Amino acid sequence: MQPELTRQNLQAKKAGAWFDVSGKLRVSNREKDSLTDVVWVPTQQVLLTQVVVPGKRKSDWMKALPYALEEEISQPIEEVFIAVLHREQTGDNAGLIQVAIVSNERMSQWTETLVSEGLASAQLVPDCFQCPFPEKQNESSTVYYIETETHRLARTGQWTGMAIPLDWLTLVSFKNITWQKASPAFPVLESLKSLGLRQGHYQPFSKSTTWVKNWGKVIAVFGLLLLLLVAQNWMEAHQKTIEKQQLTEATERLFKQMFPEVKRIVNLTAQAKTALAKQPSESEKVGPAQLAKLVESAFKQVPKVEIKAFEWQNQRLSLSLDSPDNNSLQALSEALKNKVVLTLKINSMQPNQVQAEMVIDGIR
Questions:
Q1: Strand pairing partners for 25?
Q2: Membrane-crossing residues (predicted)?
Q3: Does residue 54 sit within a domain?
Q4: Do 197 and 317 sit in the same domain of this protein?
Q5: Residue 144: how many CB atoms within 10 A of its CB?
Q6: Same domain for 205 and 318?
Q7: In the chain, pLDDT over 70 holds for what percent of residues?
Q8: Are residues 95 and 199 in the same domain?
Q9: By Cβ atoms counted within 10 A, which residue in 22, 69, 90, 355 is the most buried?
Q10: Strands, DSSP E only, in the chain?
Q11: What are the φ/ψ torsions at residue 308 (nearest 5 degrees)?
């Protein structure tokens, strides 16, 4: 055997994927390009034992289980992880639980390595379970084993096994055992599920769960961005709808002020053209449309001045104006004085806001 393989229990050509006793993950060549469902771990780093815990409700006996195992565990209970492999529900052995005990530190190391190597869905199984176990009653005293350089991996039952250092085999407790050497067997995943260590918060991820775990955050970010984009577009469309409605209402108010004789608005553009065509062309009978056309260029020259309201009454156009300063109003008045007859009145003056009223009586 090559030096790099002397610290693990199994031969690389047969094991598929396994952790050696130093915690390094090894994968045989034939498994590198395929999905690995089971990764074997050294049995000498797992305590396989059993204890009787009475109780019918799982939540009750699961709470009591750690305390029932305290005498068999050399570490503090909070530092180990207990995986339940099997529990007898009926018969004389009712309440007998077969468990596997591993330190939390080692379980975390194993599972983190699996995730980093792309084997997040693989199950961890002690390598002694590669040995067959006697299914017939007359073979119950036979213990199957696999020999390694340093240990004998023994299967003592369906859910129990152990790794025995070779120099311990001379002890009295092992001399009376009927040993049967066996070849490693590699059962399908279904038959190994009950022997797996990855339970509770160490349980393996399914393929879909792994995919979601890897890509879930990216999808969530894209989803949030898409939601924000949709919300922004909706708000912009809603704002445009409001502005369009306000413009329509303002246009209708102006039309009614300019043409009070029109009682019902059906097609505002067509009705406005018809009404304007009927307006007299004489300067003394000038209408709001002509005045609006005359003053338009002046307001473009002084964009700081805003029209807040207007009124057409008795052949006079009254404009309520807002300006940040008095100079802008004076500039507007200068631009219009040669075109129209106007009166400018300052209503109020505050810092950065001057309110005024401009009355246009006709064209010059």
A1: 19
A2: none
A3: yes
A4: no
A5: 22
A6: no
A7: 85
A8: yes
A9: 69
A10: 17-19, 25-27, 38-41, 47-52, 80-87, 96-103, 123-126, 142-147, 151-155, 161-165, 178-181, 306-313, 316-323, 340-350, 353-363
A11: -90, -30
- 343 and 194 co-located in one domain: no
Compute CA distances 257 → 291, 312, 314, 316, whole Å. Answer: 14, 6, 11, 12
CB-CB contact of 44 with 106 (8 Å): no
Contact at 8 Å (CB) between 327 and 341? no
Residues in CB range of 141: below 8 A, 6 or more apart: 177, 178
Boundaries of domain holding 313:
288-363
Asked if the structure places residue 357 within a domain, the reply is: yes
Residue 317 token pair? 């156009």
Q: How far apart are CA 86 and CA 95, in angstroms?
A: 10
Written as six digits, the tokens of 60 are 């009750």
The Cα 161–Cα 159 span in angstroms is: 7
- The pLDDT tens digits for 35-71 are 578 899 999 999 999 999 998 899 999 999 999 998 8
Q: What letter would DSSP give residue 190?
A: H
User: Which residues have a Cβ under 8 Å from the Cβ of 196 and sit 6 or more positions away?
Assistant: 83, 123, 124, 125, 204
360 and 317 Cβ atoms separated by less than 8 Å: yes
